[in-house]
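ingest -> validate -> predict -> emit
validate: passed (alphabet ok, no gaps, 72 aa)
predict: started
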Amino acid sequence: MADRPKSERNAWKPWTPAEVKQMRQDVKENTPTRVIGVHLGRPEGGVRAKAQELGISLKPTNRSPRGTKGTR
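emit:
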């Protein structure tokens, strides 16, 4: 386990209230799931699973719909 990547140092450990709070803040700021995982030291899949468990949507908000960028 000592050679575990930094982004997964907390994998399989219980989530703390502070980590959940940080995840909620990152989601509000449209932070990519991969980056949230790095912030929390958890694998991306773990972040997705916890978000689903808590009913948190990881879909970006305030973004242009796909295909509208660069149209004339």
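Residues 6-54 form one domain.
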